[in-house]
Design goal:
Layout (H helix, E strand, L loop, with lengths): L3 H8 L5 E2 L1 H13 L3 E2 L4 H5 L22 E2 L1 E4 L11 H13 L8 E6 L9 E5 L3 E5 L6 E5 L14 H9 L5 H18 L12 H6 L1 H14 L2 H18 L9 H22 L2
Parallel strand pairs: 1-3
Antiparallel strand pairs: 2-4, 4-8, 5-6, 5-8, 6-7
Helix pairs in contact: 4-5, 6-10, 8-9, 8-10
The structure holds zinc ion.
Length: about 280
């Protein structure tokens, strides 16, 4: 049996407007290419108690939800562009921004999200008012609910979590990220493209040019065997190729980190070249 508010809403002609922060964030995220939903379906509308996807939520906080405004968005996994953060990365950005009280993000009341992606844990992180984390079953998307005292706030207009995530990617890598990049490169050198003189010949000519592993090999050969300028060019090429090899890791290496990485790959390849030479 749906709530009394549901029937009251029906009699009123089912009015629905997104709260301003929800509408603004939806517009920003759709602009980046995300699929975002706000208004609940029949299940949401008829649920007891009605929650933030309805315009008659009984779970508004810190004040009663203003009538007939919805206070939630669902950011969906479908069709996220390659240059945008995954749901886990986006959730992480918004969680950290809420924690840091960043304007816009501080209007969040709670979010349900999977910080390790599908198959990992699913959390309900609420700030009402202090942070409390509990397990959630609301999987497969990022749910974000907004404070009911922010229904008409313009503040979200200045908040773009995707741009903030991109900006953070140009910062120097952490030690863990650098180590991970080196480990992945080592793995690639050892396992994915066994270093042999005949390796490129295994690929048809057209394939050779398009294959990032062959390109990486060529770039590193140059890095290993040529002068400083060639090495610098090879390092640049290596960056681009690494990015393609590891598309899931959207990071930008600093010059110093690239040098370290290039040195490491070069040393490994030289050792392998030496072994392979009859
Ligand atoms: Zn939701």
């Amino acid at each position: 049996m749906p709530s009394a508010d549901f029937f009251r809403w029906q009699r009123a002609g089912e009015p629905y407007t997104d709260c301003r922060p929800g509408a603004t964030l939806t517009k920003t995220l759709r602009g980046h290419g995300y699929t975002v939903y706000t208004r609940g379906n029949d299940d949401h509308m008829e649920a007891v108690p009605p929650e933030d996807h309805t315009p008659f939520s009984q779970t508004g906080w810190p004040v009663e939800s203003p009538e007939w405004f919805g206070h939630a968005v669902d950011i969906m996994p479908q069709g996220i562009p390659a240059n945008c953060p995954t749901l886990a990365q986006l959730g992480d950005q918004m969680f950290n921004d809420k924690t840091a009280n960043v304007p816009g993000a501080r209007l969040i009341k709670y979010m349900n999200w999977e910080p390790k992606g599908p198959g990992g844990p699913c959390y309900h992180d609420a700030w009402q008012p202090t942070h409390k984390r509990s397990a959630s079953t609301d999987r497969g998307h990022n749910h974000v609910s907004f404070r009911s005292d922010a229904t008409h706030s313009d503040e979200m207009a200045g908040y773009d979590p995707v741009q903030r995530w991109r900006d953070s990617m140009t910062e120097p890598l952490s030690k863990t990220q650098t180590r991970d990049a080196v480990v992945r490169t080592d793995d690639a050198v050892d396992n994915e493209f066994p270093w042999r003189a005949d390796y490129p010949a295994k690929f048809p000519e057209g394939d050779k040019r398009a294959n990032p592993k062959v390109q990486l090999q060529t770039a590193v050969i140059e890095a290993a065997g040529r002068g400083e300028a060639a090495r610098a060019a090879a390092v640049e090429g290596t960056t681009a190729i690494l990015a393609r090899l590891h598309e899931e890791v959207a990071v930008t290496l600093t010059d110093a980190q690239l040098d370290t990485l290039a040195d490491k790959v070069t040393a490994r390849l030289q050792a392998l070249v030496f072994k392979a030479t009859p």
